[in-house]
Amino acid sequence: MIVRTSATTAGTAVALTATLGLAAASWVVAVRQMNGMDMGGATQLGPFAFFVALWVAMMAAMMLPGAAPALLRSAHARGVRAVPLFVGSYLAVWTLVGIAVYALYRPHGSFAAGAVAIAAGVYEFTPLNGYCGRLGCPLGSRAKSIFVQ
Fold it and tell me: Residue 69 to residues 39, 63, 81, 113: CA-CA distances in angstroms?
C-alpha cells in the first residue's frame, strides 16, 4: 500500500503542471517555427538540426498531454524525481522516430517517411507495445522499473 502525503500529492501536481506547461510552451515554439510551411507535402524538411528541434517541439506539444496518466503513475510509484527521466526518455524515443523519418525522407521521399510515422502510430495498438510489462524488457530491469508499474 502506498501512503500518499500532502507533499507527495503537491509534488505530483507540480510535476504534472510543469509537464503540461512544457507541452504548451512547445506548441508556441512549433507554431512559430512552422510559420510559412503551408505547402503541404511540398514543404522541404530543412537542415537536420532544424528538423530535429521542430520535431521534438511538436512531439512534446502533441504527445506529452497524452502521456500524463503514465507520468502520474510514475510519479506516484517512484516519486516526483522520476518525472524528468520519464519525460526525457519519452521524448528521446520520439526523437529517434523523427530521425528515422528524416533519414528515410531524404533519399526515398515522403512515402517512406509517412510509412515510418504511420508504423510508429500503429505500433501503439500492437501487443508489442506491452512487451516490457508482460514478458520482461529487453533494455533491462532498470528500464522496466521506470516505465512499467
Answer: 35, 12, 16, 29
Q: How far apart (Å, rounded) are the C-alpha atoms in residues 37 and 17?
A: 30
Report whether 82 contacts 58 (CB < 8 A): no
Cα atoms found within 13 Å of the Cα of residue 42, Cβ hemisphere only: 3
N-to-C CA span, the chain: 13
**Max intra-chain CA distance, the chain:** 55
On the question of pLDDT at 140 being above 60, the answer is no
> Measuring CA to CA, how many Å separate 66 from each of 14, 43, 49, 96?
17, 27, 26, 19
For residues 95 and 57, what is the distance between their CA atoms, to the nearest angstrom?
10
Its pTM stands at: 0.60
Inter-residue contact 148 to 132 (CB < 8 Å): yes
What average pLDDT does range 39-56 have in this prediction? 77
Task: Give yes or no for residue 86 having a pLDDT over 50.
Answer: yes
CA quadruple 92, 93, 96, 102: dihedral sign:
negative
